[in-house]
Structures are given as structure tokens and as C-alpha cells.
Specification:
By secondary structure, the protein is mainly alpha-helical. The chain is about 90% helix and about 0% strand. It is built from 8 helices and no strands. It is elongated, with a radius of gyration of 63 Å. It starts with a helix and ends with a helix.
Amino acid sequence: MADTASETNFSIAASSEPTGNEPIEDLTDEQLYLLIENQLNQNRTVENETAMFERFLQKIEEKEGAQLSHLMSTGMMSASSSSLSSEQSGPGRMAQRKRSKSKAAIDKTTKLTAEQKCEIAQKEQEDIQEEKEKYDAYYDKMMDRYTAIFEESQLKMGELIKVTKEFERDISHGGRNDRSGVIIAEKVLKYIDDRNKSRETLMEKMRLKNSALKGQKQKLKLQLKQKEDTGEVLHPVDYNQLKIENSQYLEKIDEKNKELLHLKSLSGKTMNLLNAKKREVSLLTKENAQLKLETKSRKEMLQRVLNESRVAEEERQAAEAINKRIRAQIEEYRVPDVMDYVQTAAEDRDLTKKIKTWERKADIAEMALTTQQKNWNKMMQQDALATKL
């Protein structure tokens, strides 16, 4: 169905286009518009081809002029004339140009063949590619240069800020006299000497680094020369292949970086989970230790309770034995006679009176003993004084 529709549209467009044999007066407005559009397209194509061909001829003339000037400067015009005459018999560029001019003078309607146009287009494409590579290399070099200048300016700015802060710290604030508030000249001179020494050290370090880089550059030049001598120099095709491989490796590096970021994120999540589990383990360990201590205290308490229960049981048994003995005594007890009770009470009263009497006598004897001890101490002191005198 689609093929039928396309064939129908093509047949309608073909019928609407002018055939070239019809007079312009017989053409419709649409056919005139199509004719003018086709002619404009052909004109643009011819203009592009002409401009490309002019650039091609200009480059050939420039190359031939450079060759002629080189031959004239070396003083070999005779050899060059013989070579040019020999080249005219062959398919040389100059002979082709002269023949093209003669042919153009004879027949102005001569056109380039498709193969020649293709060759010129390929040459133009190669020249454009070379110019593009030159511009890319130039702009890459300029970009590297401006990047280096920017980095150098950033380093200088950072160093300037650092030096300014150090100067303010050591001189503006720390280099003033406490009494007068004036900056001490000796500290300023010492600061300048230290800065000069540090710069000299940095210059010596950079000089050594520069000499090392020069040696490395000379070594690379020798390696490049050796490769050129042995024929191991890379060609444009090799460079293109290396660019393709480089782009592939860059894609692989990007994939690996993405994978690394993914693994880092997974590692971060795993570390967070691990830390959370560690915290849980530590909490559970503490809780386990507390439970162990509580279990130990409960066991000790249980042991004490068991011991107390055993002691209480022993006391109960002893109390029960005493209770039995008392009960037995109570059962065996007989109330004494009244006269015995009266006699026992009288004896108790007599004994109480005797105890009180003997207590009074003991108090009197203690008082007498105290008095005698005091007298004895006085006598001993007097004897001591007498012996000293």
C-alpha cells in the first residue's frame, strides 16, 4: 500500500515537472516554480564545485610556486627545466593544468568527470581534516597554556594571601612593641631575611626540577629519534586508532567509575548498617552484662534467703523444742504453799536490804580509797621535791 502511494506521488511530481521541450509560455505556475527551484539548486551545486576547484587549483599553484622558488634558490634551474620538460610528456600536474587551459580555450563546455570531482572532494576533505587537526592542536595548546596561566595565578594568589596573613600575624600584630605600639625594625628585617631564604630554597628546588625535566625531555627526544630511525613512528591512521581506543578506554573508565561510585555508595550503606549493628551489639552486650550481674545478685539473694530459711528452720526447731520443754515444765509445775511463798518473799527482802547495805559500804570504801590515793600522791611529790633539793 505504501509502495503504491509513493509510486503515485512520484508519477504526479514527474507529470508536473517540465520536460524541457515545452515552451515557457505553455508551462503552469507550479511547473515554472519547480523549474526555477531546480535551476537554483544546480547553480548552487555548480558554485560549490567551482569554489572547491578554485581552492584546489590555488593550492596546486602554491605548491608549484614553492617548488620553483626552492629550485631557483638552490641554483638548479637547468635541472628543473629538464625535469619539467620530462614531466610535460607524462601526466604531471603542470601539463594537466596547461592542457586544461588549452582545452578550456578550445572547448569551454568541458566539465570534470565524477571521478575527478570525487578526487577533488576527497582532497578537500583531507585538507579540511588537516586544518581541523591543526586548529584542534592549536586550541588545545592555547587551552593548556591558559589553564597553566590560570593555575599559576591561583597559586600566586593563594601564596599572596598566605604571605599577607603571615605578615599581619608576625609583623602587624606580633611585631609591635608592647609599650609604644611601634613595629620593631629587627623583626621586620628578620621576616624579610626569612622570606628571601625561603624563596632561594624554592628557586633552587625549581631549578633542580627544571633540569630534571630538561633531561627527561632530551631522553624523550632521543627515544623519538630512535623510533624514527627504526621506522616505529606512528602514522595518522595509528593516531586515529589510538584515539578510538582511547575513547573506548575512557568509556570503560567512566563505567568503572560509575561502578566504583555505586560500590562506594553500597559500601557506605553497608558501613552504616554495620555501625548500627555494632551499636546494637554493644547495647545487647551491656544489657547482657547487666542481666548477668542481676542474675548473680538474684542468685546471691536466693542463697541468702535459703540460708535464712535454714537458720529460721533451725530456730523454729529450737523454739519448738524450748516450747515443748516449757510446756512440759508447765505441765509438771505445781503451785507452792502460801507459807513457802511468804518465807521466800521475806528472804528476798532481807537479801535486798543486805545488798543495799553492802553497796553503801562499797561506796564508802571507794571514797576512802580515793582520799588515800590523793594523800599518797602528795607524799610522793613531796619526797621527790625533797630528794631534788
